[in-house]
């Protein structure tokens, strides 16, 4: 092989390697007629010498950081109907995928300390049995069994004056207005936590009689039925009502069905609902601290006597409010499990 042929071979080989690597070497690509360094070397070794950047490229790539696997933790696999559990997600970005479908409802993931949480409440009328909780995030699939357990269900027959029923339960417009209100506010979530520490009883130290428990199946004297998904606290008219925790007043107005009504947003999808007040002392948008005076007990709307109807929704569903009194949702449950 002549020197020229050897040079030509080397140049062609180089050109093939360069083009197949996808790189552009316009400045360094040797051309016939110039005096490239490869001309003085053997073609086999000159290939690597003439292409130092290509041959050294793989060595320059640092060891890739191991990508941590997504982790999902449950506060519990077993939950009483009318209560809730929490899903905690880590090592995954859920900003584009931020919900879980379970038992017919969509629950939002909320960004929190080093990860995400999702409250999954279980409606009071859910049949107690094992259910599959599953969802996909990108390539990752999650699946667990959730056992919904029984709760004592009370039944109640409530006699209501026909005139009151006519103006409330039997008035389509009144029912529609309540439905609009409930659907508008139940899912309210701002991604901010307002509550601080334990939730307190809304009547403070006032003595009251629990006339209807959470989860009571009620039949009205006109034959209509409902799940009573709050606690009725009977006490003298005018008794002060306090914010069960810090938050922002979401709604304060009169509704035909629930009378004077106050709803407070405690953040992360936790809301408190107060019905049948005689007077309201707060306005929508107002910031309240735990223990602030928000109104007085009354018997407005569909009510048969002075009492506070007190409800708590978590993630859009009413859960037992008394379970929260003297405690708070344990959004840090995952820290305990790491110890
Ligand atoms: Zn009630």
**Rg:** 33 Å
Bound molecules: zinc ion
Element-level helix/strand string: HHHEEEEEEEEEEHHEEEEEEEEEEEEEH
- Structural class assignment: alpha+beta
Q: What is the number of strand segments? A: 23
Which bin fits the share of residues in helices?
10-25%
CATH class of the largest domain: Mainly Beta
Instruction: Output mean pLDDT.
Output: 84
What would the principal axes of the Cα set say about the shape?
elongated
What is the CATH topology of the largest domain? Answer: Glucose Permease (Domain IIA)
- The CATH superfamily of the largest domain turns out to be Glucose Permease (Domain IIA)
Largest sheet geometry: 8 strands, antiparallel
Strand content: 25-35%
**Tally of distinct domains:** 3
Report how far the terminal alpha carbons are from each other: 74 Å
Stretches where pLDDT is under 50 for at least 5 consecutive residues are 1-50
Task: Write structural notes for this entry.
With 339 residues, this protein is α+β, with helices and mostly antiparallel strands. The protein has 3 domains: 3-60, no CATH class; 71-150, Immunoglobulin-like (Sandwich), CATH 2.60.40.1590; 154-323, Distorted Sandwich (Glucose Permease (Domain IIA)), CATH 2.70.70.10. The protein contains 6 helices and 23 strands. The protein has helices at residues 3-21, 43-50, 52-60, 162-167, 172-185, 333-338, and strands at 71-74, 78-80, 84-90, 99-102, 105-108, 110-112, 115-121, 130-137, 140-149, 154-158, 209-212, 216-220, 225-228, 231-234, 240-242, 247-255, 259-265, 270-277, 279-280, 287-288, 293-296, 307-314, 317-319. Strands 11, 14, 16, 17, 18, 20, 22 and 23 form an 8-stranded antiparallel β-sheet that branches. Helix 1 packs across helix 2 (43-50). The radius of gyration is 33 Å and the shape is elongated. The relative contact order is 0.13. It binds zinc ion. Zinc ion binds at residues 212, 228, 230, 232, 309.
């Amino acid at each position: 092989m002549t020197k020229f042929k050897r040079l030509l071979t080397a140049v062609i080989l180089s050109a093939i390697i360069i083009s197949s690597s996808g790189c552009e070497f316009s400045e360094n690509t040797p051309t016939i007629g110039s005096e490239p360094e490869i001309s003085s070397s053997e073609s086999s070794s000159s290939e690597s010498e003439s292409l130092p950047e290509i041959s050294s490229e793989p060595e320059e790539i640092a060891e890739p950081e191991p990508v941590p696997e997504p982790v999902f933790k449950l506060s519990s696999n077993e939950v009483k109907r009318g209560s809730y559990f929490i899903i905690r997600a880590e090592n995954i970005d859920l900003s584009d995928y931020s919900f879980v479908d379970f038992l017919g409802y969509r629950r939002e993931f909320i960004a929190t300390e080093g990860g995400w949480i999702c409250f999954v409440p279980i409606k009071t009328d859910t049949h107690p049995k094992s259910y599959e909780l599953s969802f996909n995030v990108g390539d990752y699939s999650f699946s667990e069994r959730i056992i919904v357990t029984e709760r004592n269900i009370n039944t109640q027959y409530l006699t209501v004056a026909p005139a009151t029923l006519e103006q409330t339960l039997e008035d389509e417009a009144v029912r529609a207005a309540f439905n609009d209100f409930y659907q508008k506010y139940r899912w309210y979530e701002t991604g901010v936590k307002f509550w601080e520490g334990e939730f307190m009883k809304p009547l403070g130290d006032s003595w009251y009689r629990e006339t209807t428990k959470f989860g009571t199946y009620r039949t009205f004297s006109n034959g209509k039925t409902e799940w009573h998904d709050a606690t009725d606290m009977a006490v003298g008219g005018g008794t002060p009502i306090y914010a069960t925790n810090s938050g922002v007043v979401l709604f304060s107005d009169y509704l035909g069905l629930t009378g004077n009504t106050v709803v407070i947003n405690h953040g992360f999808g936790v809301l408190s609902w107060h019905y049948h007040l005689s007077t309201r002392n707060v306005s929508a948008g107002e910031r309240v601290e735990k223990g602030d005076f928000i109104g007085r007990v009354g018997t407005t709307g569909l009510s048969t006597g002075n009492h506070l109807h007190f409800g708590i929704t978590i993630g859009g569903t009413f859960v037992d409010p008394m379970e929260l009194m003297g405690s708070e949702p344990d959004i840090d449950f995952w820290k305990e499990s790491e110890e």
